[in-house]
Write a structure and sequence with these properties.
The complex is a heterodimer of chains A (about 190) and B (about 350). With about 190 residues, chain A is mainly alpha-helical. In chain A, about 75% of the residues lie in helices and about 0% in strands. Chain A folds into 2 domains: about 100 residues, Rna Polymerase Sigma Factor, Chain: A (Orthogonal Bundle); about 80 residues, Arc Repressor Mutant, subunit A (Orthogonal Bundle). With about 350 residues, chain B is α+β, with helices and mostly antiparallel strands. Chain B has 9 helices and 18 strands. The chains are: A mainly alpha (about 190), B alpha+beta (about 350). Chains A and B meet through α2, α3, α6, α7 and α10 of A and α1, α3 and α4 of B.
């Protein structure tokens, strides 16, 4: 297997196959990442494609200080934020503005991609206490509001808050070791 | 454990978009407390996002996308901006500095050539001063403090430097931000009210926001935005800072000649009294120094304050006589405080 470091060297010397390989490695995950900012898939795909085109165009001069993953995530994030500023979604909506602040500070070095985390996440979900898992799934996957979940499960809203809070804390605990291992793996 | 649980609930509510403004503030404060808090939050966010991505990964057509990108790479020209031809480039290079110079001259008119002249106002120990700045902003300068500002503010920024403590009521002007600099802190505001304190001899430098929004830069590095009734205090020795909710009045009451103490240590109480009345007060008993005290003094004389303190705290005090220094001046009045 070729290391990412070697792929980057090949890319610098103009090897289009190395470029294709990197594209295939990261494309889907980056589109999904962009989806956290912009809910439009076509727009997200366009953004990721132009990030890759810029990578190709600047292959000889681009300095990748940390990992390629971090570099790509940051580029995608910046393009998405530019897009958001452009369409003024951010200015128009107070709540959105708050989200925006949080997201801007996201550390891309530590971010774990969808395809790396997905499998382990399913395992971790299965380890949750049943009532926490139920509340979490209803909220995250079915999109129910806390109030609706409380009515459905016949418990108080406060109980739902506690269960979902506990669920993400436990998920983090189960995945913590894994998050660390990935960090080592990704640093070149 | 209890706090951690509470934070988990707040994070979950934030992520699912069900957080209230009050809770969001709480979360924001927690996030700004330590770097670890932010990375804890980021891990939760990461899990949350990956747990249910915005699009179905199966529906992203990798091969199509790859073909499209490779096609553009082969063609070699894919940049959105059209490439300028050579004479346009030269023209652009020539014109840009001319435009910039023109804009600069227009903006600065007369102040362009004249060197900046500064005004300095000092509030001697034991007095307070009220200063009006050229833009109409009002400043109260506490005892033993100094403020420096240009006689005419340049357009683009209203810059003021401060040592000691001052309370600012800034005239609103969005285009020309108002900037206060001390040795460690920088506050940037447009139209707000805030209090800044950084005495050279103190370990703590702090900013308290009364009204509006300000951005605070600590040690030239980290910038934090503050909400009303929040206070940032920086420990100059450890370089650690804290953002806390507070009753802002307590921190700027000095401007009205009022000393407001709300659960403060007695050594702090004496320090503030000493500053206002220009006396050196030393607490000679460490247990007394750390006692918590609550009081408001409004216009009382120093003697009256000490009489009141004696009633409510187990202290006695001794006036040290003023002595002549070698330079022929009398030393500062000194009061020593002991346990009763």
């Amino acid at each position: 297997m070729i290391s990412e470091h070697d792929l980057l060297l090949e890319l610098k010397s103009g090897n289009k196959e190395a470029f294709s390989l990197l594209f295939r490695n990261y494309y889907k995950d980056l589109v999904l990442f962009a989806g956290n900012f912009l809910p439009n898939q076509t727009l997200c795909e366009d953004i990721v494609q132009s990030v890759f085109l810029k990578l190709w165009e600047g292959r000889e001069v681009i300095k990748i200080e940390r990992s390629l993953k971090s570099f790509l995530l940051r580029s995608v994030q910046n393009s998405c934020l530019d897009e958001l500023r452009h369409v003024k979604i951010v200015r128009g909506h107070e709540g959105m503005m708050k989200d925006f602040h949080f997201l801007e500070a996201l550390d891309t070095e530590e971010y774990v991609l969808y395809s790396d985390l997905q499998q382990h996440l399913n395992d971790a979900l299965n380890k949750l206490p049943p009532n926490c898992m139920e509340a979490f799934l209803l909220n995250r996957f079915e999109g129910f509001k806390y109030k609706e979940i409380a009515q459905r499960l016949n418990v108080s809203e406060r109980t739902v808050e506690v269960r979902i809070g506990k669920a993400i804390n436990l998920l983090r605990k189960h995945l913590k070791e894994f998050l660390k291992i990935l960090l080592l793996f990704f640093s070149i | 454990m209890e706090i951690k649980n509470k934070i988990d609930i707040l994070i979950a509510k934030f992520l699912s978009g069900q957080i209230s403004t009050k809770e969001a503030n709480e979360l924001n404060i927690w996030l700004n407390e330590y770097k670890e808090n932010r990375s804890y939050f980021n891990q939760m966010l990461n899990i949350w996002q990956v747990a249910n991505p915005a699009f179905n990964p199966e529906e992203i057509n990798l091969l199509n996308a790859e073909a499209k990108v490779i096609r553009k790479v082969e063609r070699g020209r894919f940049l959105k901006s059209p490439v300028l031809i050579w004479w346009q480039r030269i023209a652009a290079v020539l014109i840009l500095p001319i435009i910039l110079l023109g804009a600069y001259l227009l903006n600065n008119d007369t102040s362009f050539i004249a060197k900046e002249t500064y005004q300095e106002v000092v509030s001697p120990l034991g007095t307070r001063s009220k200063v009006f700045l050229p833009d109409g902003s009002m400043v109260f300068l506490n005892s033993g403090s100094k403020i420096k500002y240009p006689v005419n503010f340049r357009s683009g920024a209203r810059k003021v430097s401060l040592t000691g403590e001052a309370y600012f009521e800034v005239k609103s002007d969005i285009n020309n931000p108002f900037i206060v600099k001390t040795s460690r802190l920088k506050v940037e505001a447009t139209g707000t009210i805030f209090n800044v304190e950084e005495f050279l001899t103190d370990t703590i430098a702090a900013i308290t926001l009364v009204e509006g929004v300000v951005g605070v830069t600590i040690n030239g590095k980290k910038t934090i935005s503050m909400a009303p009734n929040q206070r940032i205090s920086l420990n100059k020795q450890t370089n650690k800072y804290q953002l806390t909710q507070t009753d802002s009045y307590k921190w700027y009451a000095w401007k009205d000649g009022v000393l407001a103490f709300r659960d403060d240590r007695l050594d702090y109480v004496f320090k503030k009294i000493g500053l206002m009345y220009n006396v050196d007060i030393s607490v000679e008993d460490s247990q007394i120094a750390s006692q918590i005290y609550r009081a408001t003094f409004d216009g009382e004389s120093l003697d009256e304050i000490f009489k009141l303190l004696q009633i409510s705290a187990p202290i006695r005090y001794v006036h040290a006589p003023r002595v002549m220094t070698p330079s022929g001046e009398f030393s500062k009045e000194k009061i020593r405080v002991y346990r009763k």
